[in-house]
C-alpha cells in the first residue's frame, strides 16, 4: 500500500498522480479523455494502490497518450498492440498491476484481434477503452464504432458500415468484468474502474466520450454540451432498463428499447491466465 | 533461475537433436525465462521445445495470436527484467518488423530466431532458404542498426543462441539468430556445455546512485536498466524521446542525437560483435565467402579444390550484421576472385561487392528452390573461375 496520505482535493490528486513534465496534455477543449484520466486517478486513490507496482500501457492515438500523464511506469507502444505488450508484462511479472488505456480505433480496430485473444486468455489487467466513435488524432476518419450514416473525413457521404459493440464482444468471450459508461456521470465510472482494477482477470471498461473536434461538429453536435446531451438522451442505465422492461408501460418500454445500455454488464469470477499458469508450473516444475 | 534446474531440464550431455531444439536449449542455458511465439513451419519445434522446457524451470511460455503480438509480448516481458526469445519463419518475421523497430527504439533486449524458408509469401514452407538476409537488415522502417548471427551446425545453433542473448543484453538491442529449414530440421550430435564453460552477460543495471534517467548513457552508449516495478516510474515510448524517456518528437536535435547513438552503440563495438571463421586465408588465389548451411558444403569443396591444385580459401561469416566489411576488404586485397554461393538470388553479395570495391572479381553462385548447393556445382564454379583467371 502507498505510504502517501490520501489526497483530498483535485489539486492534491494532480500533484500525487500526474507526471508534471508532461503537462499540458495534448487534448482539445471539450475532449472527454481528461475526464477518463480524472476518474481513473480517483479510482486508484480509492483503492490506495501503490503506484510503484502499476504499469500503464497504451497503443497509439489520443487516448493512448494517457499512459504518459500518470506518474508511474508506463509503456506507450505501437498502434493497436498495447494488449500484446501488456500481456508480456503481466505474464512475466504477475505481481505488477497492469492498466491499459486504448481507444476504439486502437483497441477494437487495428488491435481487435489482440483484444479478442487477451480476453479469451483472461489476462489479469484492466482495459479502459475510450470510445469517441472516430479516429481523432489523425483528424477524424471513420472508426469501427462510427454509427451508420456518421460523417467523417473518410465517410464524407455517410458511413455505410455497421458499427461494432465492443462490450458485446467482451461478454461473448466471457470476460469476468465488463462495464460501459459515459463521461456524463463521474461517480459510477470511478466506482467501476476501481472494481475493474481490483478484479482478478480481464476487466473491460468502455468509456463513451465526446470528441467535439473530429466527430461532434461534423455530425450535428456542435460543442461539448450537445454531445453530452446526446449521450443523456441515447443511453439508459442497465438497472433502469431492466426495471422498465419488467414494470414499465409499453410506451416507456418502446422509448428505451433501442437505447445503449450503460452500467456494469458483467461482474463474475474466472481464474486468470497467470493463476492457471502458476498452477501448471507448480505441477510440472522439476 | 536455478542453474542446476536448467541443466537437469536439458537431460543428457550428449544428444542427437535438430537445430530448432538446439536453439531452445541455448536459450535456456542463456537464462531465457520468457518465450512468446506463434506456430510456423519450419520453426515450430523451437516453440514446442520451449513449451516443454520453460514450465520445468519456472519460466513462462505463451502462445500469442500472431507474430505481431509475440514480438510485443517479448518487449513487455523484457521490461520486467526477463530474458526473452521468440522464433518464426519468413511470413512471421514480416509481421514482427513493426515491434522489432519498437524494440530497437526502446533499447529492449530480446532474441528472435528465424528459421528461414523460401519466399516470397508462403513460398516453400518446408524448404530451407536464406532469402531474409536483407529483410533482417532493413525490414523495419527508419534508420537503425541490427545484430544478426548465422550458425552453420546444430552445435553452433546452441552456442550462438547463447551469444545472441549475451549481445542482446550487453547492447540492449534485439539480436537475430538466423538458421534455415535444413539446419532447423537436421539432426546432429550436440554436446551441452558445462556450467563453467558458459559465459553469460546481463544487461547493465542502474546502480541506484542519483536520479534514474532511463536513456542516459556513459561512453558505452548503452543506458542502464531498471525494470518495471522497481519504483523509478519509467516511461517507455516508440516516439523520439529524451534521456528521461519523455516524448520530444518535434526536436530535430534530440532525434538526431538519439538515432545516431542507437547506431553508434553497435557500430562502435563492432570488434566485440563481429565473428567469422577463415580457412587458408594466407595461401589462396580464390576465396569463397559464405555463411549458414551453404558454408558446410563449401568447406568440403575447399579441400577438394586444393587437392586439384586450385588454391582456394574460405571466409565464413558468422556475424552477418553489422557486416564485417574490413575483413572482406582485407580478403579482396589478397585474392583474384571471390565466389559467393548463396541460397537466394543475391543478397549478401551486395555488401560484399561494396566492401571489395572493385579490387577483385566477385562471382555469384545463387541457388533457390529449397535445395542446398551440391559440392559438384561449387567445384565447377571454382574451376570456371580458375580458367577465367588464367
N/C terminus separation of chain A: 34 Å
Q: How many domains make up the coordinates of chain A?
A: 1
Query: What is the C-level CATH assignment of chain A?
Result: Alpha Beta
Proportion of helical residues of chain A: 40-55%
Here the CATH topology of chain A equals: Rossmann fold
User: Fraction of residues of chain B in helices?
Assistant: 40-55%
Protein name (chain A): 2-oxoglutarate synthase
GO biological process, one term (chain A): cellular respiration
Organism (chain A): Candidatus Viridilinea mediisalina
InterPro entries (chain A): 2-oxoacid:Fd_oxidoreductase (IPR051457), THDP-binding (IPR029061), TPP_enzyme_TPP-bd (IPR011766)
Topology (SSEs and partners):
The complex is a heterodimer of chains A (286) and B (390).
Chain A: H1 10-17, H2 33-47, E1 54-58, H3 66-69, E2 73-76, H4 82-92, E3 97-103, H5 104-110, H6 112-121, E4 125-131, E5 134-135, E6 141-142, H7 166-172, E7 177-182, H8 187-198, E8 202-208, H9 212-216, H10 224-234, E9 235-237, H11 238-247, H12 250-256, E10 260-267, H13 273-284
Parallel strand pairs in A: 1-2, 1-3, 3-4, 4-8, 7-8, 9-10
Antiparallel strand pairs in A: 5-6, 7-10
Helix pairs in contact in A: 2-8, 5-6
Chain B: H1 3-10, E1 14-18, H2 19-30, E2 34-37, H3 44-56, E3 60-63, H4 67-78, E4 84-88, H5 90-105, E5 110-118, E6 124-128, H6 133-138, E7 147-149, H7 154-171, E8 174-180, H8 181-185, E9 187-191, E10 235-237, H9 252-267, H10 270-273, E11 276-279, E12 286-291, H11 294-307, E13 312-317, E14 319-321, H12 325-334, E15 337-342, H13 349-356, E16 361-366, H14 375-389
Parallel strand pairs in B: 2-3, 2-4, 4-5, 5-8, 7-8, 12-13, 12-15, 15-16
Antiparallel strand pairs in B: 1-9, 5-6, 7-14, 11-13
Helix pairs in contact in B: 2-3, 2-7, 4-5, 11-14, 12-13
Amino acid at each position: 500500500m502507498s505510504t502517501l496520505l490520501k489526497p483530498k482535493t483535485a489539486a492534491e490528486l494532480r500533484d500525487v498522480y500526474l507526471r508534471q513534465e508532461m503537462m499540458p496534455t495534448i487534448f482539445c477543449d471539450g475532449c472527454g479523455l481528461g475526464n477518463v484520466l480524472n476518474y481513473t486517478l480517483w479510482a486508484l486513490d480509492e483503492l490506495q494502490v501503490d503506484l510503484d507496482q502499476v504499469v500503464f500501457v497504451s497503443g497509439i492515438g489520443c487516448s493512448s497518450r494517457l499512459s504518459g500523464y500518470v506518474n508511474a511506469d508506463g509503456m506507450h507502444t505501437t498502434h493497436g498492440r498495447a494488449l500484446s505488450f501488456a500481456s508480456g508484462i503481466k505474464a512475466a511479472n504477475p505481481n505488477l498491476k497492469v492498466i491499459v488505456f486504448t481507444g476504439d480505433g486502437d483497441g477494437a480496430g487495428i488491435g481487435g484481434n489482440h483484444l479478442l485473444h487477451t480476453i479469451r486468455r483472461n489476462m489479469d489487467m484492466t482495459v479502459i477503452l475510450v470510445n469517441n466513435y472516430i479516429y481523432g488524432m489523425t483528424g477524424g476518419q471513420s472508426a469501427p464504432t462510427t454509427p451508420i450514416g456518421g460523417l467523417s473525413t473518410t465517410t464524407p457521404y455517410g458511413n455505410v458500415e455497421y458499427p461494432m459493440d465492443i462490450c458485446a464482444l467482451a461478454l461473448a468471450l466471457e470476460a469476468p468484468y465488463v462495464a460501459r459508461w459515459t463521461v456524463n456521470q463521474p461517480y459510477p465510472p470511478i466506482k467501476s474502474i476501481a472494481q475493474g482494477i481490483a478484479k482478478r482477470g480481464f476487466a473491460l471498461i468502455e468509456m463513451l466520450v465526446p470528441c467535439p473536434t473530429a466527430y461532434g461538429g461534423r455530425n450535428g453536435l456542435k460543442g461539448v454540451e450537445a454531445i453530452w446531451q446526446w449521450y443523456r438522451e441515447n443511453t439508459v442505465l442497465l438497472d433502469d432498463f431492466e426495471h422498465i422492461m419488467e414494470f414499465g408501460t409499453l410506451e416507456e418500454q418502446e422509448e428505451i428499447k433501442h437505447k445503449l445500455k450503460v452500467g456494469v454488464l458483467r461482474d463474475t469470477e474466472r481464474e486468470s491466465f497467470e493463476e492457471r499458469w502458476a498452477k501448471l508450473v507448480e505441477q510440472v516444475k522439476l | 533461475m536455478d542453474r542446476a534446474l536448467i541443466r537437469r531440464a536439458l537431460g543428457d550431455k550428449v544428444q542427437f537433436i535438430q537445430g530448432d531444439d538446439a536453439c531452445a536449449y541455448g536459450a535456456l542455458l542463456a537464462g531465457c525465462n520468457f518465450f512468446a511465439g506463434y506456430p510456423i513451419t519450419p520453426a515450430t519445434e523451437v516453440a514446442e521445445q520451449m513449451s516443454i522446457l520453460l514450465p520445468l524451470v519456472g519460466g513462462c511460455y505463451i502462445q500469442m495470436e500472431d507474430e505481431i503480438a509475440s514480438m510485443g509480448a517479448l518487449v513487455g516481458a523484457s521490461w520486467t527484467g526477463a530474458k526473452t526469445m521468440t522464433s518464426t519463419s519468413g511470413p512471421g518475421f514480416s509481421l514482427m518488423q513493426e515491434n522489432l523497430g519498437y524494440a530497437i527504439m526502446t533499447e529492449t533486449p530480446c532474441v528472435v530466431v528465424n528459421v528461414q524458408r523460401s519466399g516470397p509469401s508462403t513460398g516453400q514452407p518446408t524448404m530451407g532458404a536464406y532469402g531474409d538476409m536483407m529483410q533482417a537488415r532493413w525490414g523495419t522502417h527508419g534508420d537503425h542498426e541490427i545484430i544478426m548471427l548465422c550458425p552453420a551446425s546444430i552445435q553452433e545453433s546452441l552456442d550462438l543462441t547463447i551469444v545472441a542473448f549475451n549481445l542482446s543484453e550487453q547492447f540492449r538491442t534485439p539480436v537475430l539468430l538466423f538458421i534455415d529449414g535444413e539446419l532447423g530440421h537436421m539432426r546432429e550430435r550436440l554436446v551441452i556445455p558445462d556450467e563453467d564453460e558458459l559465459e553469460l552477460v546481463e544487461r547493465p543495471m542502474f546502480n541506484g546512485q542519483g536520479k534514474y534517467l532511463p536513456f542516459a548513457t556513459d561512453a558505452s552508449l548503452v543506458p542502464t536498466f531498471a525494470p518495471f516495478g522497481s519504483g523509478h516510474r519509467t516511461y517507455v515510448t516508440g516516439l523520439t524521446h529524451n534521456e528521461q524517456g519523455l516524448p520530444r518528437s518535434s526536436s530535430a536535435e534530440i532525434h538526431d542525437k538519439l538515432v545516431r547513438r542507437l547506431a553508434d552503440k553497435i557500430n562502435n563495438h563492432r570488434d566485440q560483435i563481429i565473428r567469422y571463421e577463415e580457412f587458408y586465408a594466407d595461401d589462396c588465389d580464390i576465396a569463397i565467402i559464405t555463411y549458414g548451411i551453404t558454408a558446410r558444403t563449401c568447406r568440403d569443396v575447399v579441400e577438394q579444390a586444393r587437392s586439384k591444385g586450385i588454391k582456394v580459401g574460405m571466409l565464413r561469416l558468422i556475424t552477418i550484421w553489422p557486416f564485417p566489411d574490413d575483413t572482406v576488404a582485407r580478403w579482396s586485397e589478397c585474392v583474384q576472385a571471390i565466389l559467393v554461393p548463396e541460397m537466394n538470388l543475391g543478397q549478401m553479395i551486395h555488401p560484399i561487392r561494396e566492401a571489395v570495391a572493385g579490387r577483385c572479381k566477385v562471382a555469384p553462385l545463387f541457388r533457390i528452390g529449397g535445395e542446398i548447393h551440391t559440392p559438384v556445382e561449387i567445384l565447377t564454379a571454382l574451376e570456371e573461375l580458375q580458367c577465367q583467371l588464367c
